[in-house]
Structure formats: structure tokens, C-alpha cells
From TrEMBL:
Record has Nucleotidyltransferase as a keyword: no
Protein name: 2-aminoethylphosphonate dioxygenase
Keyword hit for Transmembrane helix: no
Gene3D superfamilies from the UniProt entry: q2cbj1_9rhob like domain
The organism's place on the tree of life at top rank: Eukaryota
Top-level taxonomy: Eukaryota, Fungi, Dikarya, Ascomycota, Pezizomycotina
Cofactor field: Fe cation
Amino acid sequence: MATTQLTPAQIQHFDDEGFLVLRANEHNLIDPTVLQQWTNEVKALPREHGKWMPYDEITADGSRQLMRTENFVNYHAGFASLLNGAEMNAILKQLTRDDMLLFKDKINYKLPGGNGFGAHLDAPAYDHIGQIEHTTANLAVDAATVENGCVEVVPRSHRMDVELANGGAISAKWEAAHEWMPVELQPGDLLIFGSHLAHRSKKNDTTKSRASIYATYHMKSDGDDLKEKYYIDRRENFPPDHERIPGKDYELGVKRYAFSAPFTSIDDNKAGVQVV
């Protein structure tokens, strides 16, 4: 596959605005129908200990449903080839000026009735591994629209002093004072943004799912085993629902990871914990 060559204008847009959208026919990384097939395969994985990490959410009507799967790349050859592949790295390197290594992988399913994700920065959830810049490649599995809760960003916020209220959660005052831009995507489209860009999403008010792949990378110059360190810490301090040990204190994990995405509570599986 030929490497996608970004234009100087695209690179400048990423530098200035903090994000870049590449349509599926611009990057040609994967057929959108294959992306949907692979996502369904990960979604159907059984709940096992010590491997991929499925997390649940509680919807507004009290229903429990799958919200996310993390750490799945090592268990799916297709996604491993795509997200660790030379083509993806070549695109990211043009924006970051360095070779990139996968740091974190997750699929947010945004099922019908799925909750929104509060306004936040990603960086504070990663700083315990290293206070460095991370870059996320968000591949749309399904169309992302305003109606089903697409990502919204504040352009240029990666260069702003964003006021935080709790961990990486953005204060209500700062959120209300800034203009948020919806980023609508079609299946296969790619949104790339850094870990200091303010972003959020609303709930899915439609009858169809709005799944997205989020592959977060770090520069190779920052180390070569950061993904392993991240998931060792996350599994110990904020494991998926089925791996939680009754009576164990997960306060550190809640503080470290719990500030943006809807999640079940540690104690009684009721809504109330937010996880990035």
C-alpha cells in the first residue's frame, strides 16, 4: 500500500488547530466494511481474565450494556496489523515528526441510548506513565453525527490554558465559555488529535450504534514499553467489571482514570463513575 502523503496545508492545520480529519478515501488504510466486521469480532469476545478489557455502562433507563473494550490489539491479528502498521505510522509521523508506538487501544461502542463523554483532556490520565504528548487516531466504524453523539472539539485548545475541575475533566465555566465544533465522520474516516485538545461527546439518541476505534500513540523517542506499563497499572487499579475484587480499594484508579466516560460504579454497579 502506498503511503498517504499529507499536504503542507494538512500538516499546518494539525499544528494550528490541534486536530486533522482524513476521509476514508484519502487515507485508504482499511475498507470500512472490514473495520465493522473486526469491531463486531472484538465486541463478541468472551469475558476472560487478564486479556482484553470490556467495560460496561448504565444507561438513563437503568439498562446495563457494553460501553467499551480496551487492550484488544494483541488478541486480534487484523487490528494489530492496522494499528501497528507502517501505513498508520507514516501518517502520524508526518504530523508528529517522530516514529510512533501504540500506547492504548479501545473501541467505544456508543450503543443506542449510550451515554455521552464529558468535556475533558486525555493527558492527565496518562501523565503517571510519563508527562509527554500523545496522539490519538480515531477511526469511525459507523457514521458519527450530531444526533448519535459525535466527537466535539475546541479548535486550538491544545495551546490554551484549559481549566480543569477533576483530573482531566474540564470545568463547567471553561466549557461554557468556549465554542465546541462537532466533527462528523463517515465510516472509515479518521480523526487525529493530541492529548491536550479539549473534546467531548453527547449521548446517542438514535436507534443505531456509533462505534469508534481510538488508538493512542506515543513518540518512539519517549520509550518502548509504555503501553505495557499503562495496562499493568490500569488492570491493577481500574480493572474491567468482571475482574474487580469485592472489597478492594480502587480509589487510586478512580482518581487516575475516572473523569470522562460513563461507567458503572466500583461498589454497586450503579451509574456514577466516569472513566477516560
